[in-house]
Amino acid sequence: GAVVSQHPSRVICKSGTSVKIECRSLDFQATTMFWYRQFPKQSLMLMATSNEGSKATYEQGVEKDKFLINHASLTLSTLTVTSAHPEDSSFYICSASSPGQGNTEAFFGQGTRLTVV
Amino acid sequence: GQNIDQPTEMTATEGAIVQINCTYQTSGFNGLFWYQQHAGEAPTFLSYNVLDGLEEKGRFSSFLSRSKGYSYLLLKELQMKDSASYLCAVFDSNYQLIWGAGTKLIIKP
């Protein structure tokens, strides 16, 4: 299957700082990337959907000014958590797909565990 | 609204067979996925069904009935390492993934 690389896998940051998480599709062009967060013992929660070259579509309740998503190319999307607070500590996962090109499977990155102290 | 239902938790015995059901109500349908997720890790792709019927892949099989909005994941010859959460997800008409809450599968010796 295709490979999606997410970096970093773990990050600890101080409250008030910003953290950038990268999601790269290594061997295919991802027209659509999804960003999720997952709290312990809970399901994945979709935060936003980004299509290459356009603004991300955020789910209700997700602050777009706090969670900045950039999908500037077909192989890279970034999620920046701005002014992070302890309640932002979570597991963030990206997935990439190209449904319009017959690739209906969504490939996941390894996830990023963010701890804000 | 869009909804995917699956049991919260199931328990099975090592070596046995378990079936995890998933029912869905979505705006359109472009395929159903099953993922396995171990604690603290990203989900791992198990199967994808877009046509009715049974897809077999080793110890794991997945079944889909589009008319009933129903799927199941069948795990045979259970091993302790199969203890994980199993997530059902559907691509809707806009190719947005709609997730179930996951089924925690506990395997006992």
Provide a descriptive summary of the structure in words.
The complex is a heterodimer of chains A (117) and B (109). With 117 residues, chain A is mainly beta. Chain A has strands spanning 4-7, 10-13, 19-25, 32-38, 45-51, 57-58, 67-73, 76-81, 90-98, 103-108, 112-116. In chain A, strand 4 (32-38) and strand 5 form a beta hairpin. The mean pLDDT of chain A is 87. In chain A, the strands form 2 sheets. In chain A, strands 2, 4, 5, 6, 9, 10 and 11 form a 7-stranded mixed beta sheet that branches. In chain A, strands 1-3-8-7 form a 4-stranded antiparallel beta sheet, with no helix packed on it. Chain A starts with a strand and ends with a strand. Chain B has 109 residues and is an all-beta fold. The mean pLDDT of chain B is 91. Classes of the chains: A mainly beta (117), B mainly beta (109). Chain A binds chain B through residues 1, 6, 32, 34, 42-44, 46, 49, 91, 93, 95, 97, 99-100, 104-111, 113, and chain B through 30-31, 33, 35, 40-45, 48, 50, 87, 89, 91, 95-97, 99-102.
Spatial gap, N to C terminus of chain A: 36 Å
Rg of chain B is: 13 Å
Mean pLDDT level of chain B: 91
SSE pattern of chain B: EEEEEEEEEEE
Distance between the termini of chain B: 40 Å
Percent in strands of chain A = over 45%
The SS-based structural class of chain A is: mainly beta
User: How many β-strand stretches of chain B?
Assistant: 11
Number of helices of chain B: 0
Helix content of chain A: under 10%
Q: Tell the overall outline of chain A.
A: globular
